[in-house]
Design goal:
Radius of gyration: 17 Å
CATH architecture: 3-Layer(aba) Sandwich
Number of helices: 8
Number of domains: 1
Helix content: 25-40%
Distance between the termini: 39 Å
Structural class: alpha/beta
Strand content: 15-25%
């Protein structure tokens, strides 16, 4: 049986001149280098996929823009470009830190950690794992061929844990479902592609690719 491929694509570099944690905030699109990274990821998919490729993406701007590069490069059926499906389950994990500066004024971050409203917005890793697993499985059930899933670093890592460790399967070990962040394997850099190879519901293997250093740094 020909394996089915699920390409977990992390969005490319974001235009973020103020250096804030953008998280779930709207309006953060790709930088010039990010567009180069997204184009490189699209060219890589062209080399390993048979078009058209089904594409499903997070609703956030940076993921939608990355997905558009994939759609425009991978190829289209005779009646036009394949649509980009939007699935809110693929969005970034909520950390309750949106809008804070990166790596500066750590007391502001600590204050958020003890703020009940901010803590209520923090999403548990197990919840991220569960929604990503369901989103990928549902997309696989909808489309006949290979699939590109455009999301964010932590959700992609949780998806990999879910399928590598078979989290949610009746015979899967319990520990990964309780502390999945301890089981993260491998990098997930900007515009990278983590490819899961499936035969029916069984994971055969995982491949990883990322853009050349010139466009990824």
């Amino acid at each position: 049986m020909q394996p089915r491929l699920v390409h977990l694509v992390r969005h490319a570099e974001v235009e973020n001149p103020k250096g804030v944690i953008y998280g779930l905030l709207p309006g953060f699109g790709l930088s010039a280098r990010g567009r180069q990274q997204a184009a490189a990821a699209a060219r890589h998919l062209v080399a390993i996929c048979q078009p058209p490729l089904a594409i499903v993406a997070s609703p956030l701007d940076r993921a939608q823009e990355t997905a558009t590069f994939l759609r425009d490069h991978v190829g289209a059926p005779p009646d036009g470009h394949p649509p980009i499906d939007v699935d809110p389950r693929l969005t970034e994990a909520s950390a309750g830190m949106d809008g804070l500066p990166r790596g500066a004024r750590p007391w502001r971050h600590l204050r958020r950690l003890f703020d009940p409203e901010a803590r209520a917005r923090m999403e548990a890793p197990t919840a991220v794992l569960t929604r990503m697993r369901h989103a990928v499985r549902d997309a696989l059930a909808r489309v006949p061929g290979d699939l590109a899933v455009v999301s964010h670093q932590f959700p992609i890592r949780m998806a990999r844990v879910a399928f590598e460790r078979r989290v949610g399967h009746p015979k899967a070990p319990r520990l990964p479902a309780r502390v999945p962040w301890l089981f993260i394997r491998g990098p997930c850099n900007l515009a990278s592609i983590t490819t899961l190879r499936f035969a029916e519901d069984e994971l055969l293997g995982v491949d990883y690719w990322e853009p050349p250093a010139a466009s990824a740094t």
